[in-house]
Amino acid sequence: MCGIVGYLGEKNSKEILLGGLKELEYRGYDSAGIAVLQDGQFDSFKAIGKLVNLEEKTKDFVTDKFSIGIGHTRWATHGKPTELNAHPHLGSESYVVHNGIIENYAELKKELIAEGVTFLSQTDTEVIVHQFEKNLKTANSAFDAFKTTISQLEGAYATLLVTKGEEETIFFAKHGSPMLVGINAENEKYFASSDTPLIGHCSDVNYFEDGDFGYVTPDELAIFDVTGVKKEPVFQKLSTNKLSAQKDGFRFFMEKEIYEQSTVIADTLIGRLCDAEVLFDELDPTLFDGINEIKLCACGTSYHSALTATYLFERHAKVKTSIEVASEFRYRDPIMTKDTLFVVISQSGETADTLETLKMAKAAGLKTLVICNVDNSSMVRLADACILTRAGVEKGVASTKAFATQVTVFWMMSLYLAGLKKALPQEEIARQIALLREVPASVKVEDEMHEKIKRLSKRYLHGHGFFFIGRDVFYPLALEGALKLKEISYLHAEGYPSGEMKHGPIALADPELFTIALLPQHLLYEKAKSNVEELSARDSTICAISSIAFDKADDFIPINECKDYMLEFFEMMVVLQVLSLEISVRLGNDVDMPRNLAKSVTVE
Ligand code: AGP
Questions:
Q1: Do 267 and 101 contact (CB within 8 A), yes or no?
Q2: Rounded to the nearest 5 degrees, what angle is found at the Cα of 361, between the Cα atoms of 359 and 365?
């Protein structure tokens, strides 16, 4: 998730902007920059890596009079983390910072280049400042040019723009990405992507709504709604607890990240879905030339998303797909053939076991692809190709939104491959693309469901263990649900294919054995139901998750009736995440930093 800061006032802009960016570090980033306009003169600085690099670059730069300034920490989604791709982006006399994804940037960029504009970066953001300066040539005012520019953008943005001709004005617009403005008694104006940079500087803040745009000057905060009608700011008092603010008021980062899944999955989808075609502009289709098998390799939760992919790849793309646990693959003298595309999956891009298997595949001459959340990570730098999941920084050690965006990418990829191989009719691809567009809504956490699970969790704090069971793609989901519970509650849990119960595990069935049963309506429901009835008949305590009421369950967590099993998958995923969270809370564990675990396992 990128971070934005802005400042207008008499204080030391540089220090305020850098301080604000430091407060946004928790959002994760791979480069940063600031631009300040004082005395009609712009000064801009950018650096890749951590903020200390930017501080070093700005150490001799002083702002000691009225100025306006903007700053940004970048989490790469389009274009590598380089200084050229870092924000702020420059036109000829204007700078812009932006959080989100401009979905129609390619068309705008093409027009601008045809009109002679030179682009320095690979980013979508840069089109904003060049489009603004194009509009400035014909507009009656800088604000009109800004207003026109915003109306021409599609996608998600929180953006700040400053221009040389308007030395006392910062323009802003917000749609789909968070941003707020703060004021104080000294007529200063502060902008940020979230509360923390404003704490200690502002007394009152206004959280922008989607469609809001406008400008600030020393004496004015002008906000216009999506229809262009001026609106009054709605100020509220700013919280004073920084850590709480970083968690946006949630109890834990994991909880916040579960609630963020709707937003980040929407980001994952942006620019990749047409009506009947999935696009990955970061992939060269020739990557798949000569490929007869896809081998997926990962650890932990990433292994579970990859296991989900094996069902989707073979079902949709009709391509032979296999999967490996990285720590096993490394040492079993595997046979690797060059007609295999080797795909590693990793949230961090640094997991030692997975990284080593990537090196093995490269050494064996295989083509490689990484599905990752962190650009410029070791795996991204090493693989032949990369698809970024755009989950933003994941602070909770127990992975949630990284898993959700990985599965989303894999679902899209299965349809992308089906299109390449003409393995599915166009109308089926179109049908599933329409379903993909519903995933952000399907993972929204409903208060009623969360409250129900919070109450229910008190029943699952003991016992001699849990079975999480499911069939088909709900088997990897069962594995993931079991891992989530183990990780943060320290209770024993196992994921199993439902059909495996009678091959031994059912011997454990008794009232102290809790079975979390995934019963999707649209995939093998009757088969899964009979497996659960076998357990219920032996007095195992059953918690069924389904859109269909199940009378043999001791507990029942309803999900919404869905059009397709993949939407049931995402709804049940949220239930499992919230269930493990609430059990862990009741047990008094450290949800975000569970014992013995690290966020990135960079050792064997
Ligand atoms: C997930 O909840 C765990 N924290 C862990 O299994 C993790 O998925 C695994 O270590 C792989 O990490 P990676 O995705 O960064 O490679």
A1: yes
A2: 115
> Is residue 302 within 6 Å of ligand 1 at its C-beta?
yes
Report yes or no on 382 lying in a domain. Answer: yes
**Model pLDDT, residue 81:** 80
| Interior angle at CA 267, CA 264 and CA 273, nearest 5 | 135
Probe residue for ligand 1, chosen from 297, 327, 348 as the CB with the greatest number of ligand atoms within 8 Å: 348
Q: What is the dihedral of CA 337, 338, 341, 347, to 10 degrees?
A: 80
Q: Which range in 237-246, 321-330, 367-376 is most confidently predicted, on average pLDDT?
A: 321-330
pLDDT tens digits for range 110-128: 999 999 999 999 889 999 9
Domains identified in the chain, total number: 3
User: In angstroms, what is the span from residue 521 Cα to ligand 1's centroid?
Assistant: 30
pLDDT at 600 (0 to 100): 74
Query: Which one, of 175, 170, 162, 169, lies nearest residue 212 by Cα?
Result: 175
CATH code, domain with 21: 3.60.20.10
Pairwise CA distance, residues 530 & 307, whole Å = 24
Please give the angle made by the CA atoms of 238, 241 and 245, to the nearest 5 degrees.
Answer: 75
Residue 601 Cβ inside 6 Å of ligand 1? The answer reads yes
| CB neighbourhood size of 527 (10 A) | 12
- Catalytic-residue membership of 599: yes
HEC per residue, 89-100: EECCCEEEEEEE
Prediction pTM value: 0.78
Which of 302, 308, 394, 489 has the most ligand 1 atoms within 8 A of CB, as the residue to mutate?
302
Range of the domain at 179: 3-240
The pLDDT tens digits of the residues spanning 287-346 come to: 999 999 999 999 999 999 999 999 999 999 999 999 999 999 999 999 999 999 999 999
Co-location of 50 and 122 in the same domain: yes
- H/E element, 37: strand 31-38
Q: Residues 168, 83: one domain? A: yes
C-beta 600 within 6 A of ligand 1: yes
Is residue 599, in this structure, part of any structural domain at all? Answer: no
Angle, vertex CA 503, rays to CA 497 and CA 508, nearest 5: 90
CA 383 to chain centre: 21
Distance CA 157, CA 102 (A): 7
Domain boundary among 188, 205, 240: 240
